[in-house]
Amino acid sequence: MLELRSKEKEQLDNLKICGAQLTKTLDGLSIINRFLGNTNATFSAVKPILIQSETSITIIDLGCGGGDNLRKIARWCSQKNIRVRLIGIDGNLNILDYALDKNTSSLTVEYVQADILSNEFELPYCDILLSSHFIYHFSDSDLVRFLKRSRPRIKQHIIFSELERNPLAFSLFNVSSLFMPFTKMVKQDGKRAIKRAFKKPELDSILIKAGFGNYRITRKWAFRLLISIDYTSLKSTKTF
Fold it and tell me: Is residue 236 part of a domain?
């Protein structure tokens, strides 16, 4: 089971989806990310970089969705008086409107609409490229090409938090979704996301083909993989 990555699309892949169903789905995903620790795991990877920085840092969140990761970073940076520019990129304007509505005057985050999966997409220059539960939307070969062409546009780090394709994860989600008070879209797309996700050896192969040697893949709770690529380090390290 789940030996090969699924190519089945999710409902959220429809860049025109809107309305109450979308809002409830994004609310549900936000709760799941907080409960399962994905938002904290992503922030924990970014935090040391921000602490060590002596200049303003630009962070791009690729496929930012409802903007949970960027808002958490923005709140912390505001409290610590750390200069940071935060940019979220997503293909669905309605999702970006949802994220923008959650901004406050002290939590300024910029949002840009773009079809990230398009061959014409060009990543803006940044210090840190962040992404959470998004890169599995690429095929293996397309992800290699994206990383190769984007590499010169990233100054310091790449941090990806991704689901791990695992039969146990799929079974547990399948059972628990029967009792979760979330939308049908959350439940259906959640199972599809697990089937589309990577296994660690697949990510190893992709990163090596893209020309990265100085990366780390760390397993996190709830069947997640945290991929960290440090441009400032010459040492190749992997964590299993």
Answer: no
